[in-house]
Amino acid sequence: MIGGPPRPPLPPRPPGTAGPAGTAEGSALERFTHWLTGLGDALETADAEALKPLFTVEATFAPDPFAPLDSGRRAVIERLSGEVAGSTGLSFEARVLGAGETYGVAHVRLMSEERTVDGVLLVAMDARGRCTALRRWAHAGESAADPLKGVRP
């Protein structure tokens, strides 16, 4: 879910205006929001195939500032898929902090029954709205699903 409950669909664009999100013609904010929505949908359903169109073949991913880069779409998808494998009740939230022609920055939260990962993504994008480089600064903690978990009497 990006920034709240689902919104009703937008009316069709008038002829001659920018194309749909995820194309070279959409605004930077539209392309980045489209990409984040695709990422969230794929992670919530643990669908590795849905991640493929989001990344270029040569994409890189730094899961944290001190980790070595995962290089190539296959390695990026394996890493992301491995992080959600076996998780139950996945929920993805994101808030765009900024978007330019070649990048996007977002605060993201991926929650499951087991844990919550809260962080910031920096996404470099090509003209087609695909990620060429993904950098993440995040903290993983116990899930907030059980507010009394870990609380001593």
Q: How many distinct folded domains?
A: 1
Q: Based on helices, strands and strand pairing, what is the structural class?
A: alpha+beta
Q: Count the strands?
A: 6
Largest sheet: 6 strands, mixed
CATH topology: Nuclear Transport Factor 2, Chain: A
SSE run: HHEEHEEEE
Just give the CATH class: Alpha Beta
Helix proportion of residues, in percent? Answer: 10-25%
Defining traits:
Nuclear Transport Factor 2, Chain: A, alpha+beta, 153 residues, disordered C terminus, six-stranded mixed beta sheet, 6 strands
Give the structure's gist in a few sentences.
The chain is α+β, with helices and mostly antiparallel strands.
Can you offer a commentary on this structure?
- With 153 residues, the chain is α+β, with helices and mostly antiparallel strands.
- It has a single domain (28-142), classed as Nuclear Transport Factor 2, Chain: A, CATH 3.10.450.50.
- It is built from 3 helices and 6 strands, in the order ααββαββββ.
- It has a 6-stranded mixed sheet with strand order 2-1-6-5-4-3, covered by helices on one side.
- It is globular, with a radius of gyration of 16 Å.
- The N and C termini lie far apart (35 Å).
- Mean pLDDT is 83; it is low at 7-24 and 146-153.
